[in-house]
Amino acid sequence: MNQTIQWADFQKVDIRVGTIVAVNDFPEARNASYQIKVDFGPDVGIKKSSAQLTKRYTKSQLLGKQVVAVINFPKKQIANFMSECLILGAVSGQDVILLRPDEQVDNGLKIA
User: Number of structural domains, the chain?
Assistant: First the structure.
């Protein structure tokens, strides 16, 4: 069941576009994942994320790809790694398909 939120609730979520600048294996994660660094531009900088994208994407496919992420959640400890943002994707069964702009945009642009 969907819960209705107020516009003010949505405005609290800082969702931005960034470019993946590094992708590493993450064997310590409970579920197959990558450790990813995303560049959100000069105002935000580079943030780290753990993402379960190994079923659909190789490391080389992800490198340089723009993604959409929430950047203002609290940091989350995942195994020995501190995740600083949540890369967004559509979940289809056990697979995750990235949400991303259909054209190249500046890193750090806010999603509205």
Answer: 1
